[in-house]
Structures are given as structure tokens and as C-alpha cells.
Amino acid sequence: MIKCNNQNRENILADLIPDLTPLIDVMFMLMVFLILTINQAEKIFNIETPKDEENISILNKNSSTIKITIFASNNEWAISDKKFNDFYILKNHLENLTDKNHNSKIIIYSDKKANVEKLLKLMTYLKKEKINNINIIMK
């Protein structure tokens, strides 16, 4: 057994304790990386979307993103946080937004119980306007 006097023994114990600073630094960098690269869709209205059974993740947050919500009720639509009761008013508002942002990305949120005809009507209009950067969100 090695004998040490009291003064030297305190220094030896301090040297045996591992330095966790590099490990903590790496963990914080990993957390920051994961937080910055998270790919999450923002829903503005509380609607029930169909489930994504293929696990396709397609979104990134972008300032030029236009979010369109299709509700289950007959004549309810929304762009971002503005609700519309008429498709023609929605089209006019959408024209104004797409004129400002030519490269805008359109994300469509559709209620699970919404009529498919509403989605087809919107898609037909977007195709006619030659807007191709469209995504449909599912859970």
C-alpha cells in the first residue's frame, strides 16, 4: 500500500476525479444542433389531419411559406390566421400573396373530414396559376 501525507493525498484525489467539462460541452452542442434542425409543421387551427402512414417529412420553416387550411364545414377556408367563407375571396387573397412572393411554398392543411372536392378545387386553381411548390400536410 502506498502511504501519502495529508497534503499530497488531497491533490491525488483531485487528479483522479474525471473532468466532465468536455462531455457537457459536447452535449450542449448536440442539443443545439438537434433543436436547430428539427423539422416541425406549424398548425394554426385545431383540425384533425389524416395520418401519414408512409412517414414522409417534407417541411421546413420559411418566411415565404403560405399556409392554407381547409375546414370540414362547407365554405370555410383559411390562409395563415385569416378565415374566409368564400372560395373567390380566398383566391383573391392568395393572388395578392403569390404576386408578392413568386417563389412561395404553399402548405395545405386539410381537416380529416373535409370534402375532397374542396381540395381538388384548390389544387385545380393552383395548377391554373402555375404554382407548383405545394405540400399537403398529414400527421
Question: Overview of this structure, please?
Answer:
The structure is a single chain. The chain is an alpha/beta fold. The protein has 2 domains: 6-36; 65-137, 2-Layer Sandwich (Nucleotidyltransferase, domain 5), CATH 3.30.420.270. Helices cover 39% and strands 16% of the residues. It contains 4 helices and 5 strands; from the N terminus they run ααβββαβαβ. A 5-stranded mixed β-sheet has the order 3-2-1-4-5, covered by helices on one side. Helix 4 links the parallel strand 4 (105-110) and strand 5. It is elongated, with a radius of gyration of 27 Å.
Lay out the secondary structure.
Layout: H1 6-16, H2 21-36, E1 65-70, E2 77-79, E3 82-84, H3 87-100, E4 105-110, H4 116-128, E5 134-137
Parallel strand pairs: 1-4, 4-5
Antiparallel strand pairs: 1-2, 2-3
In short:
Helix content is 39%, strand content 16%. By secondary structure, the chain is α/β, with parallel strands linked by helices. The protein folds into two domains: 31 residues; 73 residues, Nucleotidyltransferase, domain 5.
DSSP summary, beta strand count: 5
CATH architecture of the largest domain: 2-Layer Sandwich
**Integer tally of domains:** 2
- Per CATH, what is the topology of the largest domain? Nucleotidyltransferase, domain 5
Helix content: 25-40%
Distance between the termini: 65 Å
H/E series, N to C?
Answer: HHEEEHEHE
| Biggest beta sheet summary | 5 strands, mixed
Low-confidence stretches: 56-60
Biggest β-sheet: strands ordered side by side in the sheet: 3-2-1-4-5
Mean pLDDT: 76
Q: What form results from the Cα inertia axes? A: elongated
